[in-house]
Amino acid sequence: MRTPALDLPLMFVDVRIVAREVTILDQISLKLEAGPPTVLIGPNGAGKTTLLRAAMGLIPASSGQITWGGREFSAPTRRAIMFQRPAMLRRSTAGNIRYALAAAKVPRAQREARMRELMAEVGLVGLEHRPARRLSGGEQQRLALARAFARDPAVLFLDEPTVSLDPAATKAIEDIVRTITARGVKVVMSTHDLGQAKRIAGDVVLLHRGRLIENSPAAEFFAAPRTHEARKFIAGELLM
Description:
Elements: E1 10-19, E2 22-32, E3 38-41, H1 48-56, E4 63-68, E5 79-82, H2 93-103, H3 108-121, H4 137-149, E6 155-159, H5 167-182, E7 186-190, H6 194-200, E8 203-208, E9 211-217, H7 218-223, H8 228-234
Parallel strand pairs: 3-7, 3-8, 5-6, 6-7
Antiparallel strand pairs: 1-2, 1-4, 8-9
């Protein structure tokens, strides 16, 4: 079990993010702590991706405050993010991971062994020499996870990691999420799939039009949602 990240809790305090006079996140206050995965749900345009990017430190808050472990400024050395459609480098599968290990400043002498560990961890053994761009969609997502793991993160942000994947590929990603969660890695993940949220979430954050509508333990959220918007979303109705 990994020691809880010094970056946690991750706190959003009245965070507002505005781009080109459009409010993307509006007065978000949220506390993310060590433990089971936090799953962000909500319709397209709700602000899920922006929240993940802001948490990673890639987007500054227009107002409000984001702190990691009580510090407003903290180098993201123990954090990693996997984007919804990660780019594959024009290299082999192993070459993509070696590049990520070099970028993470893993000592050269350790990279080959660590690359093989990561290949095994995400189920890509035997595909070391295959060009990354010739992998299936599910294999590319697992390779993207391996590249994120190269940073040895204590906090991992995942933006729709199973979008457009078939059930088998989705299960493979979910199994990896469960494995790393059991090791103490904090996963914060966005998804459109309510079934997936039920399967893996420890707590659920519902966003709509940039506002935080509800944040509660997953079992409570699905059994007894507190807000009208949450009840509509769970029922499959459109949030307007």
